[in-house]
Design brief:
Blueprint: H1 21-26, E1 34-36, E2 42-44, H2 46-57, H3 66-91, H4 95-115, H5 129-139, H6 141-148, H7 157-168, H8 170-173, H9 180-189, H10 194-200
Antiparallel strand pairs: 1-2
Helix pairs in contact: 3-4, 3-5, 9-10
């Protein structure tokens, strides 16, 4: 969102496997993203940060309609729920728990598939905060799908098209470091879970 709005900012990448103490001191849940506005004012939770940026920058990424804006916030929260399912997936210590997390993700993907229009973005030809919210969701699966040896998007052509459009968006590409894919793979290998074991027995692509 910050890049789309051409706002100046400094990005600090956090290794979630080795979270520094200064980060834990400002992130109550130990999660990213966190927005440090200044030395004393800090916001956490993606949807809250998005709403704050919208208000201070008069962002066109949210609708000017109050109802539509809150619909967008609801779908951004939906993206956060998928991210929670992804965390369940890579932390699952049994095949049953892994399968349950995957099933929940597939169900949510089907909800998206059923409501998506012609694209290329969530709301048609206008890139919005909902697109910004889902970009990090879809990014995970470029690493996870090969490890699982299955395509969770196989039965979702509209979702696949949206995902590809997001992958090509300059702001989405710039939102992570050039080594993100390898770092995520190494992170997954370090998990004491079923997916972690699969990653250890899989070559990085």
């Amino acid at each position: 969102m910050l890049t789309e709005l051409d706002l100046e900012f400094e990005r600090v990448d956090i290794d979630l496997a080795q979270k520094p103490n200064w980060f834990l001191a400002i992130s109550p849940l130990g999660k990213v993203p966190v927005l440090a506005i200044n030395e004393t004012q800090v916001l956490f939770e993606s949807s809250v940060i998005s709403h704050y940026v919208h208000e201070v920058a008069n962002s066109p990424l949210f609708s000017s309609s109050t109802y539509e804006k809150h619909q967008q916030l609801a779908w951004a929260e939906f993206a956060s729920q998928v991210l929670a399912d992804i965390a369940r997936m890579y932390k699952a210590k049994t095949d049953a728990l892994l399968a349950a997390a995957i099933l929940d993700i597939e169900r949510k993907f089907q909800v998206l598939e059923d409501i998506l229009g012609p694209g290329p973005w969530f709301s048609g030809d206008r890139f919005s905060a909902v697109d910004a919210a889902f970009a990090p969701v879809f990014r995970y699966f470029y690493v996870i799908d090969p490890i699982l040896e299955r395509d969770l998007f196989a039965n979702s052509p509209a979702l696949q098209s949206w995902r590809r459009a997001l992958q090509k968006r300059p702001s989405v590409q710039a939102a992570v470091s050039e080594t993100y894919t390898r770092q995520l793979f190494i992170f997954l290998q370090g998990q004491e879970s079923v997916l972690g074991e699969k990653a250890k027995n899989h070559s990085f692509i």
